[in-house]
Design goal:
The chain has helices at 24-35, 60-72, 92-102, 117-123, 128-131; strands at residues 3-8, 13-23, 45-57, 81-86, 109-114. The protein is of the alpha/beta class and 141 residues long. It has a single domain (3-135), classed as Transcription Regulator spoIIAA, CATH 3.30.750. The protein has a five-stranded mixed beta sheet, sandwiched between helices. The protein is globular.
C-alpha cells in the first residue's frame, strides 16, 4: 500500500508511511482519512515517513489545495501538535521545506523535516532510544 498509518493513542502518535508513486492529492486525501479515524484524538502528533516515495507528482491545483490548507491552520482551534516529516530526496525534501517555511511557531501545527527517524522522533516528543523499535526503525545506539 502506498499510504498507510498506525495510531498509537497511548503515546499520542499518528505514524504514516508513504511509498511508491503518488500524487500530492493522494497524500492530502490520505491525511484527511487518517485524521477522521475514530481512534484519532485532538493533539495527536504526526510522524510521517516519506523516504520510500519513488515519485511525487504535483500540479498547480494540488499545490493550491495544499497552500489553502496551510493558510487555514492559522484559524484552526484544535490542540497544538507537531508534525515531523522524514524525507530523503527530491522533490519531497523541497516540498516539505516549503511547508516548514510557510507555517510559523504561531500556528497550532508546527512542521519540521528530517532525513532520519531519530530527529523526527525527538521532535514529536519521543525518546529515539526507547521508541525506534516500535515504529520499525533501527535502534539508536
Amino acid at each position: 500500500m502506498p499510504c498507510r498509518y498506525t495510531l498509537h493513542p497511548d503515546i499520542g502518535i499518528l505514524h504514516c508511511r508513504f511509498s511508491g508513486h503518488l500524487h500530492l492529492d493522494d497524500i492530502l486525501g490520505f491525511v484527511d482519512r487518517a485524521l477522521r479515524d475514530p481512534g484519532h484524538r485532538d493533539g495527536t502528533n504526526i510522524l510521517a515517513d516519506a523516504r520510500a516515495l519513488t515519485r511525487l507528482d504535483i500540479d498547480g491545483p494540488a499545490q493550491r489545495r495544499l497552500s489553502d490548507r496551510l493558510v487555514a491552520l492559522e484559524r484552526w482551534r484544535g490542540m497544538p501538535r507537531s508534525c515531523a516529516i522524514i524525507a530523503a530526496g527530491e522533490p519531497v525534501w523541497s516540498l516539505v521545506g516549503s511547508i516548514v517555511a510557510t507555517t510559523s511557531l504561531e500556528s497550532p501545527v508546527v512542521f519540521d523535516r528530517f532525513r532520519n527517524p531519530s530527529g523526527a522522533l525527538a521532535f514529536v516528543g519521543l525518546n529515539p532510544r526507547l521508541h525506534s523499535d516500535r515504529f520499525g526503525y533501527l535502534p539508536v545506539p
